[in-house]
Amino acid sequence: MNLSEPKNKDISKPPDYWRKPLDVEKYKIPHGAVHIIIERCKGCEFCIEFCPQKVFEVSDEFNSKGYHPPKIVSHDKCVNCKLCELICPEFAIYITEDEPMNII
Amino acid sequence: MSMNEIHPMDKLIRADRMPHIWCSGCGLGTNFICYLTAMEKSGLDLNKCVIVSGIGCTGRIPGYTNIDSFHTTHGRAIPFALGLKLANPELTVTVFSGDGDLFAIGGNHFIHAARRNVDINIICVNNFNYGMTGGQFGPTTPLDAKTTTSPYGNYEHPFNLVDLAAASGAVYVARWTSIHVRRLSKSIEEALLKKGFTFIEIISPCPTNYGRRNKLGDGLDEMKYYREHSIIKHGINPKEADLSFNGEIVVGKFVDIDKPTFLDNQPDMSQMSVNNKK
């Protein structure tokens, strides 16, 4: 087995441990709840492209102006980094802090 | 989700005027929210902050803020800001305007405000053309770029804004793009708290005019281009940070020095008279 190669390359998922680390209870993954104000969205897709955890995808629905707002793929993926809140030009996304998640 | 949701920035913007006029894919909204975030983080008293702009798409920003703001005539944002600062030195004055406004008609005001080192902050959103009036070429349009008034390619040399600011005497000079949201808001925060003439250039996508005529794709494609082609080089000579058409974009903080401001150097005139010079 090549030790230098990480076992799990997909950083969006928690790592696979061969045993449970002793201090695993001490550390938590931050978690945020994503809120989208659909009527403000102009469909630029910045959030979909630049979210590091790929929380969003294009929705099939329309808002009243005829744009496709983003929809949330999985609430569990959000780690409360608030990049979408900063990058959304329309003031249409915000994050509220949620209960942190366990690593395993 | 209901329409009555309140965004955390809604206290700093005029939420009743949303959605704003900027096109889908425009970077101005992102730059605006970075500025508001920086302002919140800097801990400044928001009642003593003023934002001034000239005309153009970027000139719309004061109209959307809830803090004191003024929308001046074409190119005269800096003289107005200068007057504000000198009349009331307690204020933190920011000029948020576009490249056409600050450097075409307002170019002279810019270099002289920088030379005097007046304590104001300049944020220039550079989208390489006059976006609001239909995409004409301006003083920052790169060589060979196509615009409405240069359909065969622009043959004028553009300004290197960061070099111009540094040469004119600005104490803080930085350049970022709309994709560098965290670095940009950190940089704006530093500039707001710094004493003296500060200048930040933000390269921002204009999908409707500049992007469309140069086949750069929509706003998202331009943002992806910035992500792939920008290189952070802190502290280099701004002369080397030239921008070219579809070339690499050198970003970073180029100048951060301290020197006495205009008001620091101003002698106390009340203690002086013609006969009794101190």
Helix-strand category of chain A: mainly beta
CATH topology of the domain at 37-102 in chain A: Alpha-Beta Plaits
The CATH architecture of chain B would be 3-Layer(aba) Sandwich
Strand fraction of chain B? 15-25%
Major sheet attributes of chain A: 2 strands, antiparallel
Uncertain runs of chain B: none
* Strand element count of chain A: 4
Number of helices of chain A: 2
Residue share in helix of chain A: under 10%
CATH-scheme architecture of the domain at 37-102 in chain A:
2-Layer Sandwich
Individual helix count of chain B: 10
The strand line-up of the biggest sheet of chain B is: 2-1-3-4-6-5-8-7
User: In this structure, how is the largest beta sheet of chain B organized?
Assistant: 8 strands, mixed
Distance between the termini of chain A: 24 Å
Structure characterization notes:
The complex is a heterodimer of chains A (104) and B (278). With 104 residues, chain A is mainly beta. Chain A has a domain at 37-102: Alpha-Beta Plaits (2-Layer Sandwich). Chain A is built from 2 helices and 4 strands. Chain A has a two-stranded antiparallel sheet. In chain A, strands 2-3 form a two-stranded antiparallel ribbon. Chain A starts with 27 loop residues before the first strand and ends with a strand. The mean pLDDT of chain A is 84. Chain B has 278 residues and is α/β, with parallel strands linked by helices. Chain B has 10 helices and 8 strands. Chain B has an 8-stranded mixed sheet, sandwiched between helices. In chain B, helix 1 (28-42) crosses helix 7 (181-193) and helix 4 (99-105) crosses helix 5 (107-116). The longest helix of chain B has 15 residues, at 28-42. The model of chain B has no long low-confidence stretch (mean pLDDT 90). Chain A binds chain B through residues 35-40, 42-46, 49-50, 65, 67, 83, 85-92, 94, and chain B through 1, 3, 5, 7-10, 13, 15, 18-20, 22-30, 32-34, 37, 179, 181-182, 185, 218-220, 223-224.
